């Protein structure tokens, strides 16, 4: 066991096709962490391997068999998994009244059910090891809700509740589970979210003017945004921490809205959120 502790930590990251996942993989590798980035398509995996990530693998978190393959391969190569970062996810846009049930179901399949299945499978490994860390990528929208993001809000609220429960159940096991409550970060997240409006019947919606404005909008300079390295550096701190905190707020927006949720009445908070 002492020899294992002298080796670099072994970290698996889901959702490394771009943005936060890929930047975090690079950031950790530069700091001598052994990283296994995963992505949903073969083309994205090839991009990662072209960057020098020889251990890059395909992983669609909606497929339990692919999760199992990744875990087996990392254990074959390294003998352990120290940290699993559940980063994969996307945002379904649209007013609640416009959301087809299938769009809501697909949102939960990735953001909650996929995260949950990864967590369940890697927990078996960490129990045998006698410890480990699981990082769940939540959002400021797991703390407060914003209009037009009902599916995403709901999925992240669910991640918060599931993880808070798991943390209590893992007390004393040596396995730490941590939430990242990330606010606006510069990535392709908003660009990808706008594509999900294809699932909405915009022409029949009472919100059609707002949807069209959103599709024409410029999201290159969202207020209080931080670069993806802000998340990567927090993940690195968790990797190195002996006992990581249960929850990390990332960006000023998260801090401000997290405080507002605690001190304002529901009606007062609603007024604030309607102006965001």
**Alpha-carbon Rg, integer:** 19 Å
CATH architecture: 3-Layer(aba) Sandwich
**N-to-C CA distance:** 50 Å
- Summed up, the helix count is 11
Measured as a percent range, the helix fraction is 40-55%
> How many extended strands?
7
CATH class: Alpha Beta
| Element-level helix/strand string | HEHEHEHEHEHEHHHEHH
Tertiary shape = globular
Strand fraction band? Answer: 5-15%
Average of the residue pLDDT scores: 94
Instruction: Give the CATH topology.
Output: Rossmann fold
Description:
The model has no long low-confidence stretch (mean pLDDT 94). This protein is of the alpha/beta class and 276 residues long. 50% of the residues lie in helices and 12% in strands. The chain has a seven-stranded parallel beta sheet, with helices on both faces. The chain has helices at residues 2-6, 19-30, 42-50, 64-78, 101-129, 150-169, 189-195, 208-216, 229-240, 252-263, 266-273; strands spanning 10-13, 34-39, 57-58, 83-86, 132-137, 175-182, 247-250. It has a single domain (2-251), classed as NAD(P)-binding Rossmann-like Domain (Rossmann fold, 3-Layer(aba) Sandwich). The protein has eleven helices and seven strands.
């Amino acid at each position: 066991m002492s020899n294992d502790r002298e080796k670099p930590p072994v970290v698996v990251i889901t959702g490394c096709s771009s943005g936060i996942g890929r930047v975090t993989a690079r950031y950790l590798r530069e700091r001598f962490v052994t990283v296994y980035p995963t992505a949903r398509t073969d083309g994205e995996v090839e991009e990662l391997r072209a960057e020098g990530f020889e251990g890059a693998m395909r992983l669609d978190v909606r497929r339990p068999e692919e999760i199992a393959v990744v875990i087996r391969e990392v254990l074959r190569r390294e003998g352990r998994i120290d940290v699993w970062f559940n980063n994969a996810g996307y945002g379904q846009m649209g007013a609640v009244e416009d959301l087809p049930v299938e769009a809501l179901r697909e949102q939960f399949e990735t953001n909650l059910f996929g995260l949950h299945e990864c967590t369940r499978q890697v927990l078996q490994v960490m129990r045998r090891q006698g410890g480990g860390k699981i990082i769940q990528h939540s959002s400021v929208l797991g703390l407060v809700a914003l209009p037009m993001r009902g599916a995403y809000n709901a999925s992240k609220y669910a991640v918060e509740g599931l993880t808070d429960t798991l943390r209590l159940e893992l007390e004393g096991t040596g396995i730490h589970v941590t939430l990242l409550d990330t606010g606006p970060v510069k990535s392709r997240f908003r660009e990808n979210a706008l594509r999900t409006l294809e699932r909405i019947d915009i022409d029949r919606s009472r919100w059609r003017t707002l949807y069209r404005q959103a599709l024409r909008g410029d999201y290159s300079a969202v207020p209080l945004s931080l670069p993806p390295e802000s998340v990567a550096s927090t993940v690195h701190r968790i990797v190195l921490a002996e006992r990581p905190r249960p929850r990390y707020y990332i960006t000023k927006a998260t801090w401000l809205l997290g405080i507002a949720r605690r001190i304002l009445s529901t009606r007062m908070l609603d007024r604030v959120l309607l102006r965001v």
